[in-house]
Amino acid sequence: MTDFLKVYESYAPMVRRFALFLCGNPALADDITSETFIRVWRSEGKIRESSVKAYLFTIARNLYRDYLRSVKHTVPLDESTPDLGQGLQIQMEQKAEVRAVMVALQELSEIDRAALLMRVQEEMSYEEIAQVLKIPLSSTKVKVHRARLKLMKARGTFHEVRS
Amino acid sequence: MKIHKDVVIDLLPVYFSGEASMATRELVEECFRENHELERIARGANKSVELVTVAPVPPDDWENKLALELARERARVRAEAWHAVSGGMGLFFSVATAAFKIQGHRIFFQVWQKPSVGLAFMTVACILWLAFWAARSRFLLLSRRFRTLLWAYYFSACTLSFLLLNAVTMAYKEQVFTSPLLIVMVASMAAGVWSAYFLTGEKEKAD
Questions:
Q1: CB proximity A111 to B under 8 Å
Q2: Which residues of A touch B11 (CB under 8 A)?
Q3: pLDDT (0 to 100) of residue B100
Q4: B5 near A115, Cβ under 8 Å?
Q5: Greatest alpha-carbon span in chain B
Q6: pLDDT for B82 beyond 60
Q7: How distant is the Cα of A63 from the closest Cα of chain B, in angstroms?
Q8: Which positions ≥6 away from B79 have C-beta within 8 Å?
Q9: Backbone phi, psi, residue B48, to 5°
Q10: What ipTM was predicted for this assembly?
Q11: B204 contact A CB<8A
């Protein structure tokens, strides 16, 4: 139990942030986070320290995919979305920008979004990401690149730039 | 060398992630020197991407929250177990109440040989079915695969119980307690549900 609590304290914020950017909904991110750790607790197996992050993110992503399957559609972010400050240390002036990034992220496919978040947020290696997503290494690199490019294009007004 | 801005834009992810080769970096930086507007927008867009790394809230009262979640989980497991037990026992007592044998062109209901025993079996079956339906609302919260697994256990347990009872009654009274046809039916149900359970597992793996 002590080991489990240690894992929970160390990784819960990361899992929550990953889930929040993945689903764009703070309440759902909370549910995914707690359910992720309940599954770890229920599994009773010893987790290898090196694979903890990959293991947790795999569970969190599977839970999100289960959710998507159960609702059959994504709920778009709108003004009524609860305060993002519940789970992230953001300044007032950053809030609108973070929300805009979250909205832009929702435009990406789920797998591209997950790949990008694992790479940028957690600086996970491409090998680890490929293991979580269960796709080849080369596809992982392409997905991260494509997602980053799409997000940059969504947030930057490149079309206004003269060639 | 004149390079189209779209080419540079395509290279921005590798440039900003620090994974670009020296030649790519020089190419992008040269374009930035020539086109300050592109550089400004590119750096701004990259800043947006970096916002996903905004720090998460550190654990605060999470230990209590976790204890609460685990307590909820234990309660759920108990409810699942109760649902399976009440359903299984309910079926057992229902079948036992209706169990009959045919002897000399006459039908004999096993437990109704003594009406008080028959009545007791029926009462217990009713109570168990009520408990089963009360637990059902919680049961539906479980995943479909887990529900299938519980049903598979339940039908398997019924089959084994009937076989055991028949073995015991054959040994002592030289007669079967449950009709073999009924046992075959329940065993077929068990086989069907186990197949459904493994098929959904394969489908989930494929997904």
A1: no
A2: none
A3: 77
A4: no
A5: 106
A6: yes
A7: 12
A8: B135, B138, B139
A9: -60, -45
A10: 0.72
A11: no
Count the Cβ atoms, other than its own, within 10 Å of residue B117. Answer: 14
Cα(A49)–Cα(A51) distance, integer angstroms: 6
pLDDT at residue B33, rounded to an integer? 87
DSSP codes of every residue in B96-157: HHH-EEEETTEEEESGGGSHHHHHHHHHHHHHHHHHHHHHHHHHTTS-HHHHHHHHHHHHHH
Of B5, B49, B62, the CB nearest to A163: B5
| Percent over 90 (pLDDT), chain B | 2
B112-129 residue pLDDT tens: 777 767 777 877 888 888
- Residue type at A100 in one-letter notation: A
Q: Among partner residues A41, A105, A144, which is closest to B70 by beta-carbon distance? A: A41
Element (H or E) spanning B85, and its range?
A: helix B62-98
- C-alpha count within 13 angstroms, C-beta hemisphere, residue A43: 13
- Nearest-10 crossing angle of helices A126-133, A110-122: 150
The verdict on a CB contact (< 8 Å) between A155 and B5 is: no
pLDDT value of residue A87: 61
Q: Are B52 and A120 in contact (CB under 8 A)?
A: yes
Residue B204 pLDDT > 70, yes or no?
no
**Which positions in chain A touch B3 (Cβ < 8 Å)?**
none
Sort strands B106-109 and B100-103 into parallel, antiparallel or unpaired: antiparallel
DSSP for A68-133, written as a single string: HHHHSSPPPP-TTSPPGGGTB---HHHHHHHHHHHHHHHTS-HHHHHHHHHHHHH---HHHHHHHH
A6: contact with B, CB 8 A cutoff: no
Q: Which two tokens stand for residue A127?
A: 């090998």
pLDDT one digit per residue (tens) for chain A, 163 residues: 557 777 887 888 889 889 988 988 888 888 888 888 878 876 666 666 568 888 899 999 999 998 888 776 555 555 545 566 556 666 666 777 888 888 888 888 999 999 999 998 888 889 999 988 989 999 999 999 999 888 888 877 766 666 6
Nearest to B45 among A9, A42, A152 (CB): A152
